[in-house]
Amino acid sequence: MSDISTPPTGRGALAKGEARLAWGLLFPTITIVAAVVVLPLLAIFWISVKPVQLSDLRAPELVLREDLRRMNVAGDEGSWRFRLRNSSPDRQLRGVSFTDVVPPGIVLGDLPEACALDASVLTCTFGDVDGGWRETLEIPATAAADFDPEVSVRDTAPDTTARSSSVLTDGTFTLANFSRIFDAGEFWDVLYATLFYTIVGTVGAIVMGLFAALLLDKSFRGQGILRGLYLFPYVAPVIAVAFAWIILFDPFSGSANALLLRMGVAGEAINFFGERPLALIMVTVFEIWRYFPLSFLFILARMQSIPQDMYEAADIDGASPFQQFAWISLPQLLGILSVLFLLRFIWTFNKFDDIFLLTGGNAGTRTLTVNVYEQAFAISNIGAGAAVAVVIFACLLGFSFFFFRYISQEEGL
Amino acid sequence: MSFLRNGPVAAAMLGAAWMVTLAITVAVGVAFVTGEALRPSVLWSLLLGAMLGAGLLFVRLPVAVAVAVAVVIGAVLMVIGIGPILAGDDAGIAAQALAALFLWAGFAIAVLKTNDGLAQGSADRYTFETSCIRFLTGFGYIFFTAIVAIPFWVMLMTSFKSRAEQVANPLDFGIDFSKGRELFRSYEELFTQFDFGLYLANSFLISVITVIVTLLFAIPGAYAVARLRFSGQAAFSRGILLIYMVPMIVLALPIYIAFSVTGLRNSIFGILLIYPVTTIPVALYMLQGYFRGLPAEVEEAGLMDGLSRLKVIWKITLPLSLPALASVSLYVFMIAWNEFLLAFMLLDDPSKFTLTRGIAALNSSEIPRQHLMAGSVIATVPIMALFLGLERFMTKGLTAGSVKG
């Protein structure tokens, strides 16, 4: 009887079935995300400790060309020439050899040391060769009576074998990538640019978004149109608006310069995206311009959910408009503002396209993300690029720890 | 502060602020329309704005009369050659007259509206701040409309202008209709010589497939996270958010390497492998928020009536969440359409370009700027049209896109 009085413990069949279904529904997503996000992340850590250059991505190959020299008719004494080389200038090829069939009508003379003839198959072996290796073999040959000038030695392609080891998979490791990016004096420049861009850009976008939301937090004719218009910078393709800005602020034919010059504000044309520290300010302004719509949207949504009677009560108590803003609106918006700040902070920190398109990271605008590209593709040092990416990822982990710790309970994320 | 709240002082201050704002706005606006330079003078603006702002407090005029008086004052000042907007080196009389008309009429209306309620004596805090807010509101509309509209206006107009025209007068954004078909030369060349038709089709295809694949993965996932109980649910929710925050450039590097090694670079298939994965986390996040908001009772009723879970999703949950699906689809479409970094790194073969990659290829010194801007317009117009047509969904989608709002 005693077992009846105890409630069932553990998970019942229904709960198990539900969990199974849940994992079944999640399985495709988990698989694909693991393949495209988690694997690359692991790869980044791997690559960051490998001395990989951009050129290493193409494996070294054995290149072989052959031709017959001075052999046109029967009886000619010429040679069968092979030219071999390692396509990589600096990486080793191992077990290099090739075999080729001797065409009919050709009698080979003395063979070079590397080669041996077995029946009518010529085999030459070279062992391990270094990067940049070149070799030319000239095997003396005589055209026999049945030599046919139409038959070319190229009709039978030689079989080549060569193994190369890829830096990506072998056992060489190095910390040079990290010491390289931290040692360089430019690291502090990069960090400064990143912090300036991230903090000023985030705060600026939120303040502008708050201002815009205050403007549109009342219904009037054309409110919908204005709201749509104010979202344009965010919705348009970044490449389109970035180039529009470049053309608008062009030092030679840009309208902004023409306007400033002819209004008498500026004495000479200003190179907005090419001068320190103006370039960094300009990309930050661009960031604010492009992302204030997002803040504005969130803040507006929250504003419209503030009960109107609070303002009515404040009105009756004689609170002035600024007092109402400071003591009703701001406290109500504080939650969304702090979430926005953290999220926008992380995303601005992650931003790459905007700066890359506007300045390419020149004139003191190289942020960490742009530095990944700069190291990996401009300097062709993939390993160093990966090391920067690891630094970014570490920062991101720090931010998200902060985010989940302090924000998520509050907003119920 | 109480000194500032004195009626005439406040009126003068707001009048001056309005005059400066309007002088700069009108000068820039007229310059962009006529191509002729006008100089806003801050000193004259402050002086005249303050005088007239306070003056209109003492002499109460109906709006129509005030506008008429202001325009007359403006005309007189223009003839004398002083005022808030001075003529530049080459400004024609028409541009000056146009500017003066807009400035003074606008000023009269704005100041009367702003200072409504201010009296000659000291104003209370409420009235004073209401007036300030009226100015700030007006200023805000002008400011935001200008900063948003100008880059797009420049983009559109530059696409109609040849290099020579642009260098001759960078300020001139009028359209010379007499050019006829020549006006659209860039667009014609982009479609005939630069394969923009193909890029448009590629972009469209890739975006649509991305939307479909994303939904196929995200709907079951979001449902599981929102409705089903399983251990690890909370961790999974956070994992989604965390992955959503990983910067693309960090992933792009290993993806580039993997694609180079496997030969997936330069293929639309390769792009289609990556794009949905960048959008699945955000779609999953948006959808699970919406699913949570649906009444569970409806689904339970379905279960009671003998539907399986999958049938419940198909027959009850999905029809109920059509608006959310529309928002998510639009948002994902926008992300895929605007994506630049991966397309730029992974596509080198012009026959596989997406629009954004195609525009990046136009950025060279040999190709006129006009083409670059025409390409930008071609990429911007479809997404804008979609956005304006379905703004309601889009706004919802954007709001749900990152934070519970």
Folded structure, characterized:
Chain A is an alpha+beta fold and 413 residues long. In chain A, 54% of the residues lie in helices and 14% in strands. Chain A has helices at residues 2-5, 13-48, 176-183, 186-216, 223-235, 238-248, 255-262, 278-303, 308-316, 321-350, 353-358, 368-378, 382-406, 408-411, and strands at 62-69, 77-86, 93-101, 106-108, 115-118, 121-129, 134-143, 159-163. The model of chain A has no long low-confidence stretch (mean pLDDT 85). Helices cover 75% and strands 1% of the residues of chain B. Chain B is built from 18 helices and 2 strands. Chain B has helices at residues 7-34, 42-58, 63-80, 93-114, 125-158, 163-168, 185-192, 196-227, 233-244, 248-262, 268-293, 296-304, 309-320, 322-338, 341-346, 355-362, 369-389, 391-402, and strands spanning 38-40, 85-87. Chain B starts with 6 loop residues before the first helix and ends with a helix. At the A-B interface, helix 2, helix 4, helix 5, helix 6 and helix 7 of A face helix 1, strand 1, helix 5, helix 8 and helix 9 of B.
